[in-house]
Amino acid sequence: MPSVDFDLQRFIDTELQAGKKRIIVPPGHYRVMPHDRQHLVLRNLKDITIVADGVEMICTETTRALTITHCTNLTLRGLVIDYDPLPFTQGRISGLASDKKTQEIELFDGYPAAEMARNFKYEIFRPDTRTLRCDDRFVKKIEAVGSRHLRITATNENASSPEQVGDLIVIGSESAPHGSAAHAVQCSHNVKVRLEDIVLFASNCFGFIESDCDGSVYDRCRIDRRSAADDFVKRSDPRLRSLDADAVHSSSAIKGPA
After folding, report:
1. Backbone angle region of 70, left / alpha / beta, with phi > 0 → left and psi within -120 to 50 → alpha
2. Whole-model pTM?
3. Number of compact structural domains in the chain
4. Same domain flag for 110 and 229
């Protein structure tokens, strides 16, 4: 199904203004623009169910996908969240200094350009098993050398560090000209909010984060790497990761999440 531009926020707001308690979003792959650094905001809703089965929200800037705040007895079901451009870029180590502190990276086609890469931690994967070679690495300096070539100066590397020429890397990238807010799904000050069958394929930071909530339920929610067969952009190498950081956080809950 081709992606189309769609004002998901306006659609839901219009249904709410019409007094709907059960809102059914038409299935589709929707490219959504953010407003105030958020692609969709659900605020001050009570006794509302939003059914988004077959709905994919493709976030067009690397800022927050969904904010849910000050809601009571809200259910959101079926939403798939992804990003284009992705909040990370991916490539291969093409050269290493003798002390391994300077690393030359050739980026794969289909991933964000070198100038979008962030001065952030990055991961190194073995090319054969596509599993992690070592712990996260941290950037001291990052340079774009052409649109598909990065030069990274890493911290705390030495000649015995395990990375090798040919290893794969993933590093955060940013395209948020209107400003960036962290995390894919942020919930705050909610009571009995239920998220069902929500799928996250990417995030600029955490996946789900909540604070000051009471009795949240996450039912069959999933965080995963998107498969190449299902990807809406042709990439020369399948995605190695999903989120840029942690999966789920909860803090200051009155009753913790289930």
Report:
1. left
2. 0.96
3. 2
4. no
